[in-house]
Amino acid sequence: MAKEIKTIGVLTSGGDAPGMNAAIRAVVRAGISSGLKVKGIRRGYAGLMEEDIFDMGTMSVTDIVQRGGTILFTSRCRRMMTPEGQKMAADICRKHGIDGIVVIGGDGSFRGAQKLSENGINTIGIPGTIDLDIACTEYTIGFDTACNTAMEAIDKVRDTSASHERCSIIEVMGRTAGHIALWCGISNGSEYVLIPERHEESDEQAIIDKILSKRRIGKKHHIVVNAEGVGDSYAMAERIEKATGIETRATVIGHIQRGGNPTCRDRVYASAMGALAVDLLLEGKTNRVVAHKNGDFCDYDIDEALAMEKDINQHLYSMTKRLSR
Ligand code: ADP
Ligand code: F6P
């Protein structure tokens, strides 16, 4: 018989992402409206180990749906990687009467969630990362906001790049994934997008050739979007300037991509995922991750989800090449 869930915990782990607060609010409000007690855990697994746990009432999540970051703070915790740490985390949940826990984070955080589940705590993951690098889902909390932030920043770089007739190499985040770069490449009309999933040695020469041929037909400035996983944008800018004779600047957009008010989509999807996570706990489910696939919210077994592989959207990638000719 499924364990009866009376008290749930919620934590955020790994890199923060805009929309995490909307998910926290949804977990708290959906939990309370279903008669559950909800406990917040600060600073992810590290805070769990330190028993930084507090009761969350409905007013504890007022005025946060629109805020970036995470009111629960976040961290990376090495101790959670060890069997002792994992057992200790589960024991602390039991000590605080936490029957089920919602973990908002990326793949790494889900591995921790998997271990909590193995140690007897019902666990549901919600994909929260700007990188969109979680294979089982087409949506992750924060990706939409991060893309919009990066897109606006690139528009601004384009203004100055065009005024000075320069080439700009603009680096976006994504860790080892190129999803943000690809979406910015399209939305900013870049001449070239470099992504780790399709990176080839010959790319740099192709960029140089393209810039020179575009100059010949009258183009006065050039935008190259580079995913951080491809490599050093500053060094690349120096090489491109040397090879083309065109003044080239590198801009690394950096952590502003992780902040700011979440977009409407991030607020709505994060809310839906938070409420669904609570429903799954109420159904007695564990070791599941909430996902969005083919237009619907759904859930997957965490083991299955972690074994999936994610690729870039080839259709979009081919299209960038077609549209930037
Ligand atoms: P993300 O969740 O964004 O992928 P990380 O990979 O940094 O971020 O993971 C966040 C945290 O999840 C780690 O600091 C650690 O506490 C926990 N974690 C990551 N990998 C594992 C693992 N293999 N086993 C247990 N816990 C893990
Ligand atoms: O995973 C989110 C992310 O912002 C990545 O895009 C980036 O590589 C990494 O986190 C940066 O991590 P930190 O904030 O620890 O520098």
Written account of the structure:
- The chain has a seven-stranded mixed β-sheet, sandwiched between helices. It has a four-stranded parallel β-sheet with strand order 7-8-6-9, sandwiched between helices.
- It has helices at residues 20-33, 44-49, 83-95, 107-118, 143-163, 179-187, 203-216, 233-244, 264-282, 302-307, 314-323; strands at residues 7-12, 37-41, 53-55, 100-105, 122-127, 167-172, 192-194, 222-227, 248-252, 288-293, 296-301.
- Helix 5 (143-163) packs across helix 6 (179-187) and helix 6 (179-187) runs parallel beside helix 11 (314-323).
- Helix content is 42%, strand content 18%.
- It is α/β, with parallel strands linked by helices.
- It contains eleven helices and eleven strands.
- Bound molecules: adenosine-5'-diphosphate (ADP) and 6-O-phosphono-beta-D-fructofuranose.
- Adenosine-5'-diphosphate binds at residues 13-15, 45, 76-77, 80-81, 105-109, 111-112, 115, 129.
